[in-house]
Design goal:
Elements lengths: L2 H12 L5 H8 L3 H13 L3 E2 L7 E2 L1
Antiparallel strand pairs: 1-2
Helix pairs in contact: 1-2, 1-3, 2-3
């Protein structure tokens, strides 16, 4: 499974906005890799930021 898929899956399971560190912990990934995946997912409009430093699936 690709990093973006793992990040998206962890966020879908949460059902609430998460910080990158929380996503990294939930997906068992490195925080830097999670931040790169978040940027790519945000650019492709699969996730959004309801408040600063928190991300949620659309």
């Amino acid at each position: 499974m690709e990093v973006k898929e793992k990040v998206l899956n962890a966020m879908q399971l949460s059902q609430q906005p998460m910080k990158p560190g929380e996503i990294a912990e939930a997906a068992s990934l490195d925080k830097k890799d999670v931040e790169k995946a978040i940027k790519a997912l945000k650019d492709s409009e699969q996730i959004y930021s309801p408040k600063k430093c928190y991300y949620q699936v659309k």
